[in-house]
Amino acid sequence: MIKLNKISKVYRTDEIESTALNEVSLEIGKGEFVSIMGPSGCGKSTLLNVLGMLDKPERVGVQSAGGSYKFLDSEVADLNEKGRSDVRKKNIGFIFQNFNLIDELTVFESIELPLLYNKIGLSECKQRVNELIEKIGISHRASHYPQQLSGGQQQRVAVARALITKPPLILADEPTGNLDSSHGNEVMELLCQLNEEGTTIIMVTHSSHDASYSDRIINLLDGQIVSEKKSKMA
Amino acid sequence: MIKLNKISKVYRTDEIESTALNEVSLEIGKGEFVSIMGPSGCGKSTLLNVLGMLDKPERVGVQSAGGSYKFLDSEVADLNEKGRSDVRKKNIGFIFQNFNLIDELTVFESIELPLLYNKIGLSECKQRVNELIEKIGISHRASHYPQQLSGGQQQRVAVARALITKPPLILADEPTGNLDSSHGNEVMELLCQLNEEGTTIIMVTHSSHDASYSDRIINLLDGQIVSEKKSKMA
Ligand SMILES: Nc1ncnc2c1ncn2[C@@H]1O[C@H](COP(=O)(O)OP(=O)(O)OP(=O)(O)O)[C@@H](O)[C@H]1O
Ligand SMILES: Nc1ncnc2c1ncn2[C@@H]1O[C@H](COP(=O)(O)OP(=O)(O)OP(=O)(O)O)[C@@H](O)[C@H]1O
Ligand SMILES: [Mg+2]
Ligand SMILES: [Mg+2]
Predict the structure, then answer these.
(1) Alpha carbon of A56 to those of A66, A75, A84: distances in Å?
(2) How far apart are CA A158 and CA A208, in angstroms?
(3) Cβ–Cβ gap B98/A151 under 8 Å
(4) Model confidence over A34-90: pLDDT tens digits?
(5) A101-140 pLDDT per residue, tens
(6) Interface contact flag, B152 A15, Cβ < 8 Å
(7) What are phi and psi of A89, to 5 degrees?
(8) Atom 7 of ligand 2 has which residue's CA nearest to it?
(9) What pLDDT sits at residue A98?
(10) Ligand 1 pocket, Cβ-based, cut-off 6 angstroms
(11) Atom from ligand 2 closest to the CA of residue B151
């Protein structure tokens, strides 16, 4: 499903050039559940942003990183903004590390939005959103706005919004960082269930407990993959 | 140091009235290190905001909650915005669950700001900020802005900003939620060290590992304290 070959990402600020990803190569098959772990600042969110086509891989001053990113067998590293956005809307659900909820939308509206983009009929929308809101335990907050929610409630809305269209690929950046263990496990169970139904999942996590729900763990350090191991608890 | 008596907080949105804190009473002595735990949405951040005087305790439609909040032996529940802000700037360092970093300030400037408010001389400021930036491992990012930092780097800046003036009270809302275990332990060690020097610390956490660094654990559920226990690992 995903084939990265020597992908790099270099950020430049006025004085400092920092290499967030350094020729990363990696393959992920359809239906896999992979965890990405590593110390703070080592490049995990950057890798997820490149995988999710929110960011183009590049070296400073070089048009393309010379690397390649094949998504579902087509080259996407050089797509423009519109091209990447089209592939993304159809195929990828993204759970952001800082949630990225829209302040002007209620919990219900935020979760419904991806279904509207996919032209799902209104009554089916309503039913699917209500079922998912129930599953993650925030039905009592469905008409609240993000600023009226607790940190963990915002995180659960971000999770629901990424899952609602059952996209073929889910990218999750620390999906349980603000949750107590019981709500955290509910989110992990939801991801496992989708994975059993065929969804490919790539999850960045600091928690080895959460990583144990996945099949494979990739370790990153200073923008490079340093090791990999199998992980299924089952 | 802190004496809360029957403090309540009720939020009202158009259709729903939610009681985030329901007559909470609690005492915290100078130099204590207390953890507050409980499920997502049970009122932990709200309690910390009331303790930090970022929010006034109140019942809907009632001017004061009828409860009382004595901070360093003086009643603060009915202070106005200016009164609370004065007490806060002199006495409290706050680590926010969502960091609340100022976009227009670099890492260095964000951490230096509380020292400037306290009229510390410029060369002493520079030295103290550089030492702390070194301790939490982000000297290589000192001139970056928040949007150029990873999630865990932003969290460490939020931690440093709360500690730099060595305030008598530190309120920490999930200070390690975005950190790997090694950086998370560095933050906990820093907090322990300040506590040994006399700082009072109240920390909201989902991690029983982090809570084990504190002396006492208070459990919240649906806006009420349901249990308490001793905790020192030592
Ligand atoms: N501004 C607000 N308006 C309405 N309701 C609010 C507001 N802020 C918080 N709440 C509600 O108050 C309750 C307690 O929120 P709080 O942020 O204290 O929870 P928490 O224990 O910190 O949760 P978490 O572990 O998820 O961070 C939540 O159910 C939340 O929806
Ligand atoms: N827009 C940017 N400009 C400059 N540097 C950046 C930018 N975004 C990220 N970086 C740097 O790239 C490095 C990798 O960041 P990234 O967010 O991928 O880390 P991470 O592994 O997700 O960390 P964490 O676990 O703390 O979330 C960091 O050192 C960060 O400072
Ligand atoms: Mg990250
Ligand atoms: Mg909270």
Answers:
(1) 12, 12, 9
(2) 22
(3) yes
(4) 999 999 999 999 999 999 999 988 876 565 556 899 999 999 988 898 999 999 988
(5) 999 999 999 999 999 888 888 899 999 999 999 999 999 9
(6) no
(7) -60, -35
(8) B148
(9) 93
(10) A 141, 148-153, 178; B 11, 13, 18, 20, 38, 40-46, 97
(11) 27
